[in-house]
Amino acid sequence: LAWQPRASYSDITYDFADGIARIAINRPHKRNAFRPETVSQLIDAMHRAQFDREVGVIVLTGAGHEAFCSGGDQTVRGDDGGYHDEDGTPHLNVLDLQMQIRRCPKPVVAMIAGYAIGGGHVLHLVCDLSIAADNARFGQTGPRVGSFDAGLGAGLLARTIGMKKAKEIWLLCRQYDAKQALDMGLVNTVVPLAELEEETVRWCQDMLRLSPMALRMIKAGFNADTDGLAGIQELAGNATGLFYMSEEGLEGRNAWLEKRAPDFAKYRRRP
Ligand code: 2NE
């Protein structure tokens, strides 16, 4: 595709082509580890892609072929419970990013070459689909480096690949190759590295031909139980949006604007 940059950041790139936004962590010298600034920029880019009417699908990836993402940048992890930004404020907000990916009404596809490790592994996990190159490697390192993601990193992993395997990944901190990941249902497909982007774009194009509203609703439906009331809220918000477009919903608004009693009698109660 003829990718065009649509925004400029220090830690990530943001490109667009043919209905697809491609967001890439651009810190290959650190295996695309994220620091607070990286996460802030990813949040901004996700917001941009969500609100860009030309974007139908979002691809999340890492620059280069060595890594998708190696998690939190350990060199800026302070002693005070956070990762330090350039001003010295401890925060990371990667959990906000995880939820943003889940709440995004557009499909988000992880395109993985090389390592998806630690918090980087959780990032691909929270994406809707994962397309892996044959050089991809997966794993959690938290218990080795004094960290853990006991939220989506644990629970969603268990829901994705099963409890025993999820516990194995966290409790042993081993690495798994692309074939193992495919076999355990951690990724959707594995392709030769040279074909990774072409294959990812093909999957995106398939989704771009489908109903955006149907994709939006089914994504919210898949996330609803895991996200609890907040997930139901997302699904319910989408339902409200659809109701607003119906004659019955518009009758309520119009009656209020016209200062008359609404006439809902003409709308059938469906069995
Ligand atoms: C990713 C991995 C397995 C790659 O190994 P390899 O051998 O290909 O590369 P190497 O030499 O380890 O790394 C290349 C450069 O990238 C830096 C390294 O320090 C090295 O820099 P130089 O020595 O050349 O200067 N680098 C790699 N990962 C980094 C990182 N996460 N932070 C800062 N610099 C990093 C191997 O590098 C590896 O195992 N990396 C560490 C993975 C890790 O433990 N990540 C943190 C997990 S905790 C987390 O992400 C997290 C969470 O659990 C909960 C909430 C939020 C975050």
From TrEMBL:
Residues binding substrate: 31, 70-74, 83, 115-119, 141, 147, 244, 259
Listed EC numbers: 4.1.3.36
InterPro entries: ClpP/crotonase-like_dom_sf, DHNA-CoA_synthase_MenB, Enoyl-CoA_hyd/isom_CS, Enoyl-CoA_hydra/iso, Enoyl-CoA_hydra_C
Site feature: Important for catalysis: 83, 244
Chain coiled-coil ranges: none
Catalyses which reaction(s): 2-succinylbenzoyl-CoA + H(+) = 1,4-dihydroxy-2-naphthoyl-CoA + H2O
Stored PROSITE patterns: ENOYL_COA_HYDRATASE
Annotated metabolic or biological route of this protein: Quinol/quinone metabolism; menaquinone biosynthesis; Quinol/quinone metabolism; 1,4-dihydroxy-2-naphthoate biosynthesis; 1,4-dihydroxy-2-naphthoate from chorismate: step 6/7
Keywords on record: Lyase, Menaquinone biosynthesis
Pfam families linked: ECH_1
Gene Ontology annotations for the cellular component aspect, listed alphabetically: cytosol
Protein family according to the UniProt entry: Belongs to the enoyl-CoA hydratase/isomerase family. MenB subfamily.
Job description of the protein: Converts o-succinylbenzoyl-CoA (OSB-CoA) to 1,4-dihydroxy-2-naphthoyl-CoA (DHNA-CoA).
Entry protein name: 1,4-dihydroxy-2-naphthoyl-CoA synthase
Protein species of origin: Rhodocyclus tenuis
Lineage, highest ranks first: Bacteria, Pseudomonadati, Pseudomonadota, Betaproteobacteria, Rhodocyclales
Name of the gene encoding the protein in the UniProt record: menB
